[in-house]
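Protocol step 4 of 6: record predicted structures for both targets in the notebook before any analysis. Target 1:
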Amino acid sequence: MSKTDNLAVSAVQRAADAFAAGEPVLVHDAADREGEVDLIYPARSVGPAAVARMRNDAGGLICVALSHEVAETFDLPFLADEIDHPAAEADHLGYDERSSFSLTVNHRDTYTGVTDEDRSTTITALGHAAADPEHTDFADEFRAPGHVHVLRAAPELLDEREGHTELGIALADAAGREPAVVVCEMLDDETGEALSVDDARAYAERHGFAYVEGRDLVAELA
């Protein structure tokens, strides 16, 4: 095994260890895909402070990705399949064949659903639900529309799709965590674009967070 391979394996292991401990991980999908770095948390480890970090430091949409099996148990649709409007046609997506978006939800115990407290309540509840889907009445716990975007992972995960949705769920599986992860794109205030890989790496180092390339997760976990 080459030195590069050793570094790749150690990066994946560090990411899995961090995730197992409930810590966030920065994941870059691929330069020829979205070319974005997401800040990713295990869903049950997200409190109000983590939502504030994603809001302030990352800046993208705060979404919860669920495994295919969990989404099927909850009968969660792909949003594009449910919208009867020409705008739902998305054959032109440049980064993939289809979007993984499902419903937007709030937990029924929240008020508006948008505050850091409310969103963390919804997110952690989704994590608990994903950990025990057979004993969860989804409609009894959550209402739609809401302020947390739910994403559906592909059935075959990284063998089928290599988006942050699948990368996050594969990482959760490797870490022995529930199949529910929070993903949030890291954006750049200065350029108006996605945060560069170099700046994302610097952010991870500054805050002591693990950083891993999507290609390394695919190589180790697919």
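Target 2:
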Amino acid sequence: MRTLVLAAALSGAVSIVAFQTGPWLLAAITKATTTILIIVYAARRNSGDAYARAISLGLIASLAGDVFLLWPNQGFLPGLVSFLVAHLLYLYAFTGGLRRSFALAPAIGYALFAAVALGFLWGDVPGALRLPVVVYVAALVAMAATAASMALRSGARDAAFSRMAAFGAGLFVLSDTMLAFNKFAGPITLANVFVLTTYWLAQGLIASSVRPAAR
């Protein structure tokens, strides 16, 4: 497992440097490779339950999104749909992980954050993309709020795994927010560094929320 984590970290670092310095093919290959390594990591932990299967499928959908977004203009909408599917799968997993009632506070917090971010960006989002963006943001907020609720409501046995899911979901929100501002509001200095670092940390934490299979 440690080898997979180190390999993913190295591949991600190479991808980030390559995106900054210009070898596009190297950046593209290592971007996909990093997510594939996270998928393998999750699969190695997979205990075969519904939670683990949904997380693994969400990571595979994310890989499709990664590939589509290598072409930021032509691939944006297919990439958005791929990540929408990923968030719905994560939402399904986190909903199944709830042991008690849903916590309202994280939902309110994430909804307010999303509303403020959308308010800033709305005038810069092309009309044809507004509905898809709103649907995507709603799914992202629901996913992150449910992960936070799962962490708040989990028992001691599940606490560590639930916290990893919650932190990962929060980092996903942060990553997507930076990506959106970079795309619609104007270029952010070192955007790829911040977006990809938070993105892979998010995916790694979500993958780590899968309880390892008993050996």
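Step 5 preliminary note on target 2. The chain has a mean pLDDT of 93. Residues 127-153 form the longest helix (27 residues).
Proceed to step 6 after PI sign-off.
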